[in-house]
Amino acid sequence: MSSSEGKIISVIGSGLIGRSWAMVFMSGGYRVKVYDNKPGQAARAIQDVRKQLEELQEAHMLRGDLSASEQLALLSSHDDLPQALEGAFFVQECVFEEVEAKQGVFQAVESLVGEDVILSSSTSCLLPSNVFARVQNRKRCIISHPVNPPYYVRLVELVPHPEMLPGVMDITFALMTSVGQAPVRLKKEIDGFALNRLQYAIIAESWRLVQDGVISVRDIDLVMSEGLGMRYAFIGPMETMHLNAPEGLEDYLKRYREGMRRVLTTFGPVPEFSGEAAERINKEMCEMIPPDHQNLSAKRERRDQLLMGLANLKK
């Protein structure tokens, strides 16, 4: 086992994100305690994790150096919070996206752990200053926002609480790197963090283009999957600009600055994402992929397999 042998991470919440985080940490050799306040829920989550790990091993897509059985030996389920937190150096909260629920979790957790235990939230856009508002010692509080599902998409946004000690960021960055994630550091908190601000900008303009009859749902998705997404899987927008002009970024700005500014001024208001437009777009989407459990599960499984293949290719 790696140098993580014996180190314990507590995962609070056994839903999709909690199970995926557990798999990530186990793949790095960490002991993982999964807690859920619904009796029996954490134990059921472990059965789901077992099934996933065995399928991944069979497909030669298992992360880490340990076998599925070796990873499963590191995992335990708990209905008792003090027991789930005992011995942990890092706590990853994964309850539903509601600020009062998260505040309550961290208030309870803080009363049961030592001062040096790092408190981390998986929230996708709630500000650290709100999530940790009921914590007394906020110097060890940080957001570790994964991309869903974190086992297959490695990016993690690390967002500091305004009172957080710099060392907490360093420890969390090292932890995420050690388990094969790709952490990025935000220098300060901002609504939506970085990923969702970019994602929402793309969603908003995609929605407007479909809503205004410029393009279909199918084709706007192809613009991303067969166009921008092809290069964004390997390089970001800044490097794209740098490479898309003969003499780099400065040359790109000279060539395209005015065109970018002109197009950006034509963007419409923030969509409502409701009403007639939402009904029409939803109808078109559901004709492409019927929203029943079987179809959605099959599409998600295909997504996860392709994401893992892409991750392996990028390595």
From TrEMBL:
Signal peptide location: none
> Which EC numbers characterise this protein's activity in its record?
1.1.1.45
Q: Which gene encodes it?
A: CRYL1
State the family it belongs to: Belongs to the 3-hydroxyacyl-CoA dehydrogenase family.
Q: Where is this site: Important for catalytic activity?
A: 145
Q: What is this protein called?
A: L-gulonate 3-dehydrogenase
Q: Which domain of life is it from?
A: Eukaryota
Name of the top EC class for this enzyme = oxidoreductase
Q: Name one GO biological process term.
A: fatty acid metabolic process
Q: Does the keyword Phosphoprotein apply?
A: yes
